[in-house]
Amino acid sequence: MRQRVNLMHPVLVCALVVAATWDAWRWYVARIWAAPEEAATLVLTVAFLGLLALARAPGLRGPRPMPLVAVAVLLVLYAAGHAVLPPIMCAALAVAAALFCLHIALCGERPPIAFWGLVALALPVLPSLQFTLGYPMRIVSAALTVGLLQVHGLEVARQGTFLLWRGETVQFDAPCSGVNMLWAGLLLTLMGCVLLRLSAPKVMLAVALSVVLVIAGNVLRAASLFYVEAGLVLDAPGWWHEGIGIAAFVLSSAITLWLLGRLRDRPVSA
Questions:
Q1: Based on the domain organization, do 169 and 242 belong to the same domain?
Q2: How many separate domains does the chain show?
Q3: How far apart are alpha carbons 264 and 253 in whole angstroms?
Q4: Strand partners, 170
């Protein structure tokens, strides 16, 4: 007896969705070709879903039916907006449809609300975030760093994005804005929310706490680096600059993961 082929298998639907939105994926590849690191979120999200599928594999009993209505809505929006929407919005719909199908195929269930945050981060938005949030975050971080250093007894003042101390200036340049740390912190937070399947109010609270922790970690990093850059720490090795940044991010990430565990066990009102 000939074996019947399930034409609605999630993997097949995922492949068909990618083929139907191929023009947006072509734009995506062209956009990240000069800066492949912009595709890091997409690669990490796919790898995360694969690990999630392996962790939940014993509880799955074959693939669940694909919710074709949801897929059809995304494809209709893509087709309707293809001629009028900017390319990055078309790419957003294409990535959303593909990752939605991939989540169903690998995990056998509808994705939680935090999954759509990962979809947004999977777009090549980091340069735009640097442009829009870079300077405001530098101002905020510089102001908070000055306050922290003044608590330490140092007579430090701020002028724009510069720290003034004993007639010398220490600049808050673009890498010190904390945008990269914010992107990585949000990625970790949303992955944790997907893993724990937190509700929408808890996801919103987790994202807000993550932003606060990232800013606090960046301020701690900047204040620590001030001692190095201003010569208050003598004979500091060159690797301290990167080491302090990594330590600040690890600390904020550890607190974020701890808070996610607390949010999972506590009710949060809308």
A1: yes
A2: 2
A3: 17
A4: 163
DSSP E strands: which ranges in 87-183?
A: 157-159, 162-165, 168-171
- Cα→Cα distances 63→10, 30, 173, 191, Å: 7, 33, 50, 22
Give residue 1's pLDDT band: very low, low, confident or very high (50, 70, 90). very low
Distance CA 73, CA 58 (A): 31
Mean pLDDT calculated for residue range 257-267: 84
Residue 29, judged by CB atoms within 10 A of its CB (0-12, 13-18, 19+), counts as exposed
Mean pLDDT (whole number) for 133-154? 85
**Phi-psi bin for 225: left (phi > 0), alpha (psi -120 to 50), beta?**
alpha
Is the CB of residue 115 less than 8 Å from the CB of residue 99? yes
Computed from CA positions of residues 260, 263, 265, 270, in that sequence, does the dihedral angle turn out positive or negative? negative
The average pLDDT across 9-37 equals: 83
User: 48-99, pLDDT tens digit by residue?
Assistant: 888 887 876 655 555 555 667 777 888 888 888 777 888 888 888 888 888 8
Q: What is the pLDDT of residues 201-244, one digit of tens each?
A: 999 999 999 999 999 998 888 888 888 777 677 676 777 778 88
Q: How many CA atoms lie within 13 A of 19 on its CB side?
A: 6
State the residue range of the domain holding 261.
Answer: 127-265
| CA distances from residue 162 to 158, 167, 168, 176, 269 in whole angstroms, order as listed | 6, 12, 10, 11, 42
The domain boundary residue, chosen from 103, 124, 145: 124
Say if residue 105 is in the same domain as residue 155: no
